[in-house]
Amino acid sequence: MFSLTDWILLGCLLIILAYGLLLLFARFFAESQVFPYVKKMRFELAGSFKLRMPNGRQLSLLHLESAVPQPKILLYNHGNNQDLEDLLPTLAEMQANGYSVLAYDYPGYGTSTGAPSEQSVLAAAETVYKYLVEQLEYRPEQIILYGFSLGSGPACYLAQRYPVAALIIEGGFTSTFRVVTRFKIVPWDVFDNRSILPQVNCPCLLIHGEKDEIVPFWHAKNNYQQIRAPKQKLWVANARHNDLVEIAGPQYWESLQTFITSLPKHTHT
Known about the structure:
By secondary structure, the protein is of the alpha/beta class. It has 10 helices and 8 strands.
């Protein structure tokens, strides 16, 4: 018959075993959950073009310029289960509201080659940033990073590592694991924005729907608390994850304009 001590030891062993299995899952299978199946486009989107990464993979890009020349450009990092074709209405609306935008598909998305992973997405983001600076000759203080949902990961990464004018996050998470677990329960994470944001020195604008059913609102409030740089926020009542711009209406565009016009001419990180 087991004694109380035996039961305690058995319970501890089971907890250790369960945690070990959790670590193995997080190590080998988590990214397959972060990047589920994404549709592959058969045809290139009209107006898109290719950019070669250092590893030889090809990224699909779309560059929409404002009718009136603008000193700044939005580098748009899109969400999951999206590609440039899905994103086109959003980008066109930004262009119609006076913004120049450059967007790209992650490896494995749309017609970009390769496979999606945290490493490949971050490498793609770096390639596109360098293209803006080295080939399109935008100065860092002209580049505004925009990250929607999953795109908050590469956007925060770029803001930490490279000089930019500003960072805008819409529907962003503290980290991908915390969307499921709420708390950090393994030593590593995928797209750990919460750890990165205190190191970001450029002005930040956080936008989030208070009824977001995919990335709960508490993620935005937590991220906002982590930011030490100048910051602004737009919390949209009744907005969920994919209808924020529609629900916010003019308030969204007013917040964008207020934030961008408030930026200093020269921002260093």
